[in-house]
C-alpha cells in the first residue's frame, strides 16, 4: 500500500492557488473542484454546471529558473493526456516561489524525455519512477495575485479539510 503524502499544507497550497486563479479575470467564471483520489489528478474545471477541463497543481519551493525542466511523474503525465481525449483541455499549474505558470497538455504535439528519477528524501522506494522532463520554456507565466488566507481563514479551511478532504473554489 502506498503512503499518502498529501497533507493539510499541500491542500491549503492548492486552495490558495485556485483562489488566486479564480480571482484572475480570465478564470472568474470557472469553478475548481477537487477530484476523488481515483482520478489521479487534482481537479475538474466547471463552468455553468459543465466540466470544461481538468488540471493538476504542483508546488515547487524554488525559483522557476533554478532548473531547466520541471520533473513530473510519467504516470501523472499520462493521466493528464488521457483527459484530453474528452476534447477538454488538461493543464498543469505550478506555483514556484517567484511566479505561477501553466503548461497546456498537448499529447501529439510534443514529446518529452523520459528518465528514471523522482525524489529520494522520504525513503519511499515508490518515489523513484519514470518521469518526464518538461522544459521550463514550455510554461506560460501567469500574472496572478498571491491570494493567501489569513490565520482565521486558514484555521477554518484546515477544520473543513480534516472533516472532508474535498474542496471547491468558486462555487456559488
CATH topology of the domain at 8-65 and 79-107 and 139-166: Trna Endonuclease, Chain: A, domain 1
User: Quick one: biggest sheet?
Assistant: 7 strands, mixed
Distance between the termini: 37 Å
Q: Which descriptor suits the 3D outline?
A: globular
Helicity level: 10-25%
Number of helical elements: 3
> Can you count the beta strands?
10
Q: Could you say which structural class the secondary elements and strand pairing correspond to? A: alpha+beta
CATH architecture of the domain at 8-65 and 79-107 and 139-166: 3-Layer(aba) Sandwich
Order of helices and strands: HEEEEHEEEEEHE
State which percent range the strand residues make up: 25-35%
Give the rounded overall mean pLDDT: 81
Q: State the CATH class of the domain at 8-65 and 79-107 and 139-166.
A: Alpha Beta
Report strand order across the widest sheet: 9-6-5-3-2-1-10
Which regions are unreliable across 5 or more consecutive residues at pLDDT < 50?
A: none
Radius of gyration, whole Å: 16 Å
Describe the structure.
With about 170 residues, the protein is of the alpha+beta class. About 25% of the residues lie in helices and about 30% in strands. It is built from three helices and ten strands.
Summed up:
By secondary structure, the protein is of the alpha+beta class. The protein has a domain at 8-65 and 79-107 and 139-166: Trna Endonuclease, Chain: A, domain 1 (3-Layer(aba) Sandwich).
